[in-house]
Amino acid sequence: MRDATIIGDTVNTAFRLEGVMKELNQNLVLSQDYVTVLPVGYDFVHFGEFQLKGKSQVVRVYGLRDLGAVSPSK
Length: 74
Description:
The protein is of the alpha+beta class. It has helices at residues 9-23, 32-35; strands at 30-31, 44-50, 59-64.
């Protein structure tokens, strides 16, 4: 019997973003894909574009400017 795990692109990207988070010394980073689905009202800081292992295109990485005041506008 074989053990199998399913690790898709989303899980791989999250794992690679964890490395970027540590490199940037941040508590949280978000990809462009995630930022585009959040409600309006968050204040993001753009950290740049990163070439993540296993990705053919660069990934735009963001953080929240003020993690203590996370409450989107309605």
